[in-house]
């Protein structure tokens, strides 16, 4: 800290409006791990010319680019913003604290604070009443909404839904912290430890030539971490509440890694034909079983052909819905209702729709 800065420090009190403040030397302020309390005044000293850009970037990330800043440059005050600091540096930068509701920029610490307020005394009655069990389905719903945003290539929707998924993780961690099970530091430590330990080709001695090898190293590290005793043990730990098509694909991949798989698609396709025949000839009490076998066999074919069954069926559902809606619209244009048409008529209109899409009958 230089002499000009030391002489100026007593004058800082009038900027703090009677509130407590936090003081950082510029170099110590830059690391993102530094926990800044935006609710109270911030003072950054010894902002040399070569640090102005980095300090500005850090302030913008915390407060937003328009945050007012008082700079002390050679004993004189200069009004500026977080994104427009004096280019020659400053002895001192002073930023007033701000209310949570006044933030122009938010970070993870703000999200934690909001969740704590919602769950705390005087918080939201609905949020305070929730448990891990009561909100478990919300995470699944939010995850699917994010997947839909990705499928639609809707970046604005992805922004919103990514936040909603994160909020669910924060909600569960807040509940766990209140119950003394684990807190945010524990959660983040576990996550970072997993990323470090499983990326052995980045943080260890392995070397991956491609994405497939990288995934193999990940799975090998996971196997050691989870202490799987057998392939069946690994299969048993696949979450049972996954969508059935996705669950089938995951356990089939485990079987493949242990040598239980066809080398090409031909015998897998033959298995589909076999299962279809068994379903068509099955008595009533066995139709569910045989239908499941058929679906499992179809997933197997798609997996071998490197196609995700869950995605394929979702796309088929969307295509059917779009075509059905168009059939209904065309029937209505002709002054009729679908229930008044024969199946042959509807099938003919369906084929018209397909042809207009460029797909042959």
Radius of gyration over all CA atoms, rounded: 30 Å
Q: Beta fraction of the residues?
A: 5-15%
Mean pLDDT: 90
Tell me which CATH architecture of the domain at 3-102 applies here.
Answer: 2-Layer Sandwich
- What class do helices, strands and sheet pairing give? alpha+beta
Characterise this structure:
This protein has 361 residues and is of the alpha+beta class. Among the domains are: 3-102, Methyltransferase, Cobalt-precorrin-4 Transmethylase, Domain 2, CATH 3.30.950; 108-182, MazG-like (Helix Hairpins, Orthogonal Bundle); 310-356. Helix content is 57%, strand content 8%. It contains 16 helices and 5 strands. The chain has helices at 3-8, 26-29, 52-63, 108-119, 125-129, 136-151, 155-178, 184-198, 200-203, 211-226, 231-236, 244-257, 265-280, 287-304, 309-333, 343-356, and strands at residues 21-25, 41-47, 68-73, 76-81, 90-95. Helix 4 crosses helix 7 (155-178) and helix 13 (265-280) packs antiparallel against helix 14. It is elongated and about 90 Å long.
């Amino acid at each position: 800290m230089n002499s000009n800065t030391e002489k100026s420090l007593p004058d800082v009190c009038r900027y703090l409006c009677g509130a407590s403040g936090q003081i950082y030397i510029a170099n110590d302020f830059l690391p993102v791990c530094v926990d800044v309390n935006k609710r109270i005044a911030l003072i950054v000293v010894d902002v040399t010319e070569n640090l102005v850009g980095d300090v500005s970037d850090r302030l913008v990330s915390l407060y937003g680019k328009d945050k007012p800043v008082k700079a002390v440059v050679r004993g004189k005050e200069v009004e500026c913003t977080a994104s427009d600091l004096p280019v020659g540096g400053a002895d001192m930068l002073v930023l007033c604290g701000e209310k949570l509701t006044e933030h122009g920029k938010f970070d993870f610490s703000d999200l934690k604070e909001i969740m704590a307020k919602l769950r705390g005394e005087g918080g939201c009655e609905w949020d305070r009443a929730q448990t891990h069990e009561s909100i478990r389905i919300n995470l699944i719903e939010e995850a699917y909404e994010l997947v839909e945003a990705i499928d639609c290539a809707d970046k604005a929707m992805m922004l919103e839904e990514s936040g909603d998924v994160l909020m669910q993780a924060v909600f569960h961690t807040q509940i766990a912290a209140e119950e003394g099970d684990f807190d945010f530091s524990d959660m983040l430590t576990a996550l970072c430890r997993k990323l470090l330990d499983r990326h052995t080709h980045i943080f260890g001695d392995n070397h991956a030539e491609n994405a497939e090898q990288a995934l193999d190293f990940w799975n090998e590290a996971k196997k050691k971490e989870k202490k799987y005793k057998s392939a069946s043990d690994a299969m048993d730990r696949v979450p049972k509440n996954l969508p059935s098509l996705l669950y089938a694909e995951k356990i089939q991949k485990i079987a493949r890694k242990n040598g239980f798989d066809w080398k090409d698609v031909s015998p897998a396709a033959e298995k589909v034909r076999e299962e279809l025949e068994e379903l068509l000839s099955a008595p009533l009490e066995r139709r569910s079983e045989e239908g499941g076998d058929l679906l499992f066999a179809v997933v197997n074919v798609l997996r071998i052909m490197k196609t995700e069954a869950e995605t394929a069926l979702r796309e088929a559902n969307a295509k059917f819905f779009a075509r059905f809606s168009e059939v209904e619209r065309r029937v209505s244009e002709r002054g009729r209702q679908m229930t008044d048409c024969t199946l042959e008529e509807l099938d003919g209109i369906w084929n018209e729709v397909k042809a207009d899409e460029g797909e042959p009958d």
